[in-house]
Amino acid sequence: MIPTPVGIYNMGNTCFISAVLHCLLNCRQLEKLFLSDLVHPYQSCEALCTNRRCLACQFDKVFLEYFGSSNGIDAIAALEEYELAASSLPYSCFQHQKDQVHTKKRDQNSCGHPIILSAFLSETWKQVGMKQLAGQHQHDAQEYFSSFINALHTSDVAYLNKVKQLKDMACRTQIRQATFDEKKEEDPVGASKVKDVFTGSLRSVLVCQQCNNKRTQVESFINLSLPIPREENQGQFTIESCLEHFTKSDLLSDVLYCPSCKKTTSSTQQHVFVALPEVLCLHLKRFDSAANKKVTDVVSFPARGLDMGKYLVHWRQTTSPTTSIDDKTPMVPYDLFATINHSGTLDKGHYIANVLKGDHWYSINDEFVDNANEVLPNGDAYMLFYSRRI
Hints:
Keywords: Hydrolase, Nucleus, Protease, Thiol protease, Transcription, Transcription regulation, Ubl conjugation pathway. GO terms for molecular function: cysteine-type deubiquitinase activity. This protein is α+β, with helices and mostly antiparallel strands. It has 2 domains: 15-194, no CATH class; 198-388, Cathepsin B, Chain A (Alpha-Beta Complex), CATH 3.90.70.10. 32% of the residues lie in helices and 24% in strands. It has helices at 15-25, 28-36, 42-48, 55-71, 75-80, 95-103, 118-124, 141-171, 174-181, 193-196, 230-233, 239-247, 313-316, and strands spanning 200-208, 214-221, 224-226, 237-238, 250-251, 256-258, 263-265, 267-275, 279-284, 287-288, 293-294, 299-300, 306-307, 333-344, 349-357, 360-365, 368-372, 381-388. The strands form 5 sheets. Strands 3, 9, 13, 14, 15, 16, 17 and 18 form an 8-stranded mixed beta sheet that branches. Strands 2-1-8-5 form a 4-stranded antiparallel beta sheet. A two-stranded parallel sheet has the order 4-12. Helix 3 runs antiparallel to helix 4 (55-71) and helix 4 packs across helix 8 (141-171).
């Protein structure tokens, strides 16, 4: 939908925000949700909700402004010309107007202008869980990504709750009862499709070394922080070796209480994937705060065909730390569509993004967008965004 990326102006040490947004705005799953499926039309939300602190509304506006700039149109102004009131079915009430935006004649002279995030930043810094990222200070892109997706989820759920409340009220009238009877199987309250795009599940398995008693716990994730196994690979690192290190069974240095043995014993721990997300975000742990330095080792990664099937629970879970991965696992391929690079040191650095549109890569440094023939592995690669192949 967005033909070519456009830049985002740096508002003072906000490169970590711009880099994350470039990756999200060029994610086809989010493009579909915001520009086609209208999961959170800001006009509808503003008409329905009394709470003006809605991060999802601001993100919808950023999507429209980004989309409009790349097409040479003022998408938000085009929508607001119609001055529509919100209906009781806000998911679809602005579809016609957004279709009109798609068909408006482009002004070729205005295509590709960088966008300004003043209102978006102001709203971001007011969100619970994001206030620590406020101001013109350097922050971590991975921390911002996690906090932003969670805050976006909270805002979207508040809107969904209001939509459900209005639908329930409408269902109480005989006139609309038949209409809403057909919609009983819709997504439950709290099921934000935005967060679902990035959400997967991990199983943590603890095994007692005396009685082999297993204790498991499943938890969700929206990104994976992968250590670079420097002690194992002697300078030759791949994203696959990082994943194998992350999912292998390790003997814990501390003893744990075993409810079966009823005493403290040695245990192994292993993390395996239960469910894989549509978009897999991998974070390389390059910041070593204990040593006060940045890990600059080159980690190679495939642009296409990262196979995640062998890390699923049925194939990866082992009973011994030395058990290897089964070669007969089904393939679950992922293709790279965006990366975030960090240049500089632990205390002072800069983030840039690389995004794939169609078959072409672009390197984006704040408001500057350059063509890139390919994305090459280097010591600055910090976050990798993979899309599950359809």
